[in-house]
Amino acid sequence: MQGISAAEALDARLSGIEKRLDAALERLSRVTVLERRLEEAIPYFATRSERLVGSQSIYLGEHTAVTFLRNGLRMLVDTRSLDVGIHLLTLGEWEQTDMAIFARLLQPGDKVLDIGANHGVYALHAALAVGPRGQVHAFEPNPRLAWLADFSLKINGFGDYATLHQIGASDASGIGRLFFSDALSGSGAILPARLSPNDHEVTCRLEALDNVFPDPSFTVDVIKMDIEGFEGLALRGMRQLLARSPQVKMMMEYAPEWIARAGYAPEVIFEELEALGLKIWIMSDAGRLQAIAPQALRASGKPIQNILLAREVPRAFL
Fold it and tell me: I want to staple 179 with a disulfide (CB 3.0 to 4.6 A). Which of 32, 199, 220, 250 is the partner?
């Protein structure tokens, strides 16, 4: 058998080097893929760590904590609240889908009403969005929640253009009976009689918003209203304000049984809206709007729906 020539030996060595290079390149490609995956993972974990950091809460005593919303705003929360409060304390947000729609309606300089402010989360988002050229008026008859919301607006620097009104929106001036639970802070309602023996009761001032804003030059751009069945009476009490606000857009909770419970015929709401030229859209969980006729809304049979009222499709949804 003849020996291997120098050329053949060189070829063998070059072949071995080539194989090692191929193996090294394969390992390098795996490192590159891993690096890319790490780059993709960083923002994923960053957003979730921001949620943990941004929602840090400090207990202040007397069932009160200060927490941070996901947008960085500070907020006081009643620690007994197992619906609104627990979401704010642990997640730094509340009603994420509805809030996203609400945010799309807001523009710098807008005048905004938050009717049924509760802890004030919508009012805070509105104040941040409209800025000092705008106005925010929050209405909350529960004295405890009104104090928390008012303090939150002030500690964020919104006190010059965001006002908390400790009154319930209605169709006339008067005194109402507010029933509420500390554990379910979002369920407080103005009613003629107590529904649960465990509910607390306080008297509260009622006022028509046409009386609160008598200036004929005052108009409103955005309204969020969630007052556990008192919406019909509140609408009747703001007819003049709505009539002179051509660009108004209102997010409202529609719960016909609760509206009837407050002594107002649900079907009359649609007569009021039609007289004002306001059309109805339902809001999907995906944040989309779908026009709906009053008859279809009544026939849907759903106990609670969030609807949007406006004279035209809001520009942000075109």
Answer: 199
Virtual torsion, Cα 30, 33, 38, 41, nearest 10 deg: -140
The single-letter DSSP state of residue 91 is: H
Q: Are 71 and 220 in contact (CB under 8 A)?
A: no
* Contact indicator for 120, 140 with CB cutoff of 8 Å: yes
Sheet holding 222-225, edge to edge: 162-165, 135-139, 111-115, 222-225, 249-254, 305-310, 279-283, 289-291
E strand intervals along the chain: 58-61, 64-68, 74-78, 111-115, 135-139, 162-165, 168-170, 174-180, 189-190, 200-208, 222-225, 249-254, 279-283, 289-291, 305-310
Q: What tens digit of pLDDT does each residue of 24-75 get? A: 777 766 666 666 666 666 665 555 555 555 557 999 999 999 999 999 999 9
The CATH number of 87-317, from 3.90.650.10, 2.60.40.1220, 3.40.50.150, 3.20.20.70, is 3.40.50.150
| Residue ranges per structural domain of the chain | 1-53, 87-317
Q: What are phi and psi of 144, to 5 degrees?
A: -65, -50
Instruction: Supply the pTM of this predicted model.
Output: 0.83
- Can you name the residues that pair with 82 across neighbouring β-strands? none
Alpha-carbon dihedral 84, 89, 91, 95, rounded to 10 degrees: 20
User: How far apart, in whole angstroms, are the C-alpha atoms of residue 22 and residue 146?
Assistant: 70
